[in-house]
Design a protein that fits this description.
Structural class: alpha+beta
Distance between the termini: 12 Å
Number of strands: 8
Order of helices and strands: HEEEEHEEHEEH
Largest sheet: 8 strands, antiparallel
Mean pLDDT: 95
Radius of gyration: 15 Å
Low-confidence stretches: none
Length: 152
């Protein structure tokens, strides 16, 4: 991946705030929308989710997940020109919240402060295994976790 493409990937991950989280539920895929916070070096993606949500219950059963991050639809004629990245990884429940994580989360999602008052919400860390970045129609890049970190 050249420097311009790396910058485009990093810009996409930093700009967008919504991901579609793929989990396995009863041996079948389930995809749900959630919010995410990338680590500065893209070595992890953090989710703050309720244990009542199906996707959280699924991650407790099987840590293999996928995240899908795409440009926001701007109404352009050909949606296949949108940049998007699919990241496969492993989910783990954070037993202890890193000191700055809540502050960073609330800076990105100030309206989510209420969730920190609810006992069923917790942070999860998604550690990437690999990714597939589509920089636009026909511009496809298969990435290792290390490639993803180098894009930041």
């Amino acid at each position: 991946m050249d420097a311009d493409t790396s910058r485009a990937l990093a810009g996409l991950i930093r700009k967008e705030r919504i991901t579609h989280l793929g989990t396995l539920r009863g041996a079948a895929p389930l995809v749900s929308m959630t919010l995410y916070l990338p680590a500065p070096d893209f070595s992890a993606f953090y989710l703050h989710v309720s244990r009542l949500a199906w996707h959280t219950q699924d991650m407790l059963q099987d840590p293999r997940v996928a995240l899908s991050i795409a440009e926001t639809d701007d109404g352009r004629a050909d949606p296949f020109t949108f940049m998007r990245v699919s990241i496969r990884g492993d989910a783990s429940l954070l037993q202890q919240e890193p000191p700055s994580l809540r502050t960073e989360w609330l800076a990105r999602f100030p309206e989510q402060a209420i969730n920190f008052q609810l006992a069923d919400f917790s942070f999860w860390k998604i550690a990437p295994r690999d990714a597939r970045f589509v920089a636009g129609f026909g511009r496809i890049h298969n990435l290792t976790a290390e490639d993803l970190k180098n894009a930041c």
